[in-house]
Each structure stands twice: as structure tokens, then as C-alpha cells.
Amino acid sequence: MSDASDASDAVSTPLTMFSRVAASAAWKRLNRLMPALAAAVILAMGFVLIAVTSAGHIPDVWAHTYRIDGIVNGDVLARPVDSTSILHSGSGNVGGCVSRDWIRFSIDHYDGYDPAAVNADFLERYGTNSTSTANTTCVDTPYNNAAVNSPAAYLPQLAAFAIGATATLTPGTTYVLAEIIMLLVYAGCMFAAVAALPRWRLPTALLLVSPPLIFRYSFAISADSMAQALCLLFACLLFSCMADPRAGNGRLTALMTVGVLMGMSKFTFTPLLLLGFLALIPWHSAVSESTAVPSAADAARA
Question: Does the keyword Transmembrane apply (predicted)?
Fold first, then answer.
């Protein structure tokens, strides 16, 4: 009996080792593919959400749309305007010159969800106002909510609006194009976020593909979309630098660059830049240990 059991153990031991090696290899392969898998899931869910979300059914989307088109038309900095909107019906509004096509598009697609849209009679009231800078292509339009946002917060959407203006696309086509470009940028940021992590890739990827994060702000025409993408990327880069005491200057530079862009996208996120100093703690600890002067006891032991 003992000989039979020894023979069985001798056979099972290599099989167990082989299964462990195979499992380890499969896990490493999955870990390498995790950034691409997360980005693919985000893209798939994002395209579905773009298809089912009607134009204008996102918070403050019309204010952001007016702001982006105002930047394209030359109003990089918001300025006082005499016109009003549903939300901003009083005086003292700020905004810029928005194309008439976009104003008509927002009026046609206003469903009562976002009151930042202008009134239905906006063009009749202000389109021929001699006191404004209205012309044949654009009209002064208020967008107080979005006036403080830096153009850096709208880089993906600005690219889409510039393409739309150059190719004379309709506002509806440009609107969808802006959502698609934003989704591609968002998925790229999430790919980089997961790829930056030396470990914890699976739980991080599961968090990043959760519907509450992807819904709306993975593709929306909004400053919050870029801010959310950069904030998540900044967090992953920060954990990556803290987990690896040997993080080089390149990774630290990437961390601070993303942090600056995050602050430009959402000024309220600027204090988060201070968290970047946490990445220096393990780095300086490793340097201090390697350059420490040996004690007398250590010298005697040597």
C-alpha cells in the first residue's frame, strides 16, 4: 500500500506544480491584458449610453455647449452679456458669442431637463439687438455656470467643435462627434490608469468599469468629463508612485502633469495636487537608507 501511495504522490506532485505554474501564467497574462479589457468595457458601455441618452438630457450640458462654441468663436474669456436664458433670467450675466445653429439646436432639443438653455424666442429678442455684438453667425449668449471653466477642461470637445466648424457639419452630428471623442479620451485615460498600477489591477479595473462612473461623464459635453478622467488617472499614478519607492522622475513628472491638467479642468480639484508630495515619501526614505552613514557597531561588525 505504501508503495502505491508513494507512486500516487510522485505523480500528483508534478501535476500540482504544473497546475500552479499554468495558473500563475494565466494570471500574469490576465494582469497584462487588464488595461485593455477595462478600456474595451468602458468603450462598449459608453457607446450604448451615447445611443440611449438624448441630446440635452445631461446636467448643464447647454451651458457647456454654449461655452465651447463661444471659445471656438473667439471668446476664450467670458464677458458681460445683456441676454438671458431660462436659468439666468436676470441681469449681470456673462457669456460669449454662440453660433445661431447651436442656439437653434438647443431650443429644438430642450426637453425641460437643463434650464441653462435659452428661451424659445431668444433669437427674436436678441438676434437683432444693436447693443450686442450679434452678427449673422452668432449671438451673445449667457452661460454663467460654465464661464469659469478653463478651455483645458474642454480639449476633446473643442477638437470636435473645430472639426464640425471646419467640415460644416450639422450641430447634431458635431454633438455626437464630441461625445465620441470624449469617450475615446476617457477610455484612454482609464487604460493608462490601470496600466500604471504594479498591482491591484483587477479591483481597480472593476471599479473603473462600474456603471455609476461611466454613466454620463465618460462621454458628456461637460467640464466634469475631463475632470473625472484626469482625477482617476491622477489617483492611480499616485498609488503607483507610492507603491514603488524606485519610481523614476518620468513617473513623478507624469503624476504632476496630470495633476496640473486636473486642476485646470476643475479648479476645486487644485488642492488635490498636494497629495502628490506623498509620492516623494517612499522615494526619499529609500534614498536616505541607501546613503546613511554606518554606525560604529556596524563598522565593527564589518
Answer: yes
The predicted-structure confidence for 201-210, as pLDDT tens digits, reads as follows 999 999 999 9
Question: Are 155 and 279 members of one domain?
Answer: yes
| 242 vs 29: CA distance, rounded Å | 24
Q: What percent of the chain has pLDDT over 70?
A: 80
Q: Is the dihedral of CA 15, 17, 20, 26 positive or negative?
A: negative
Among the listed residues 185, 229, 187, 178, the one whose alpha carbon sits nearest the alpha carbon of residue 67? 178
In a domain, 197, yes or no: yes
CB 78 within 8 A of CB 94: yes
**Cα distance between residue 265 and residue 155, in whole Å:** 10
C-alpha cell at 272: 488635490
User: Cell digits for 251?
Assistant: 513617473
Q: What distance in Å separates the CA atoms of residue 192 and residue 56, rounded to the nearest whole number?
A: 30
Cβ(95)–Cβ(83) below 8 Å: yes
**CB of 199 within 8 A of CB of 40?**
no
- For residue 155, give Cα distances in angstroms to 149, 214, 293: 12, 19, 51
pTM exceeds cut of 0.85: no
Q: What's the whole-number average pLDDT of the chain?
A: 85
The helix, strand and coil proportions of the chain, stated in percent and rounded to the nearest 5, come to 65, 5, 30
- Provide the 8-state DSSP code for 141: E
Q: Tell me: do 96 and 162 sit in the same domain.
A: no
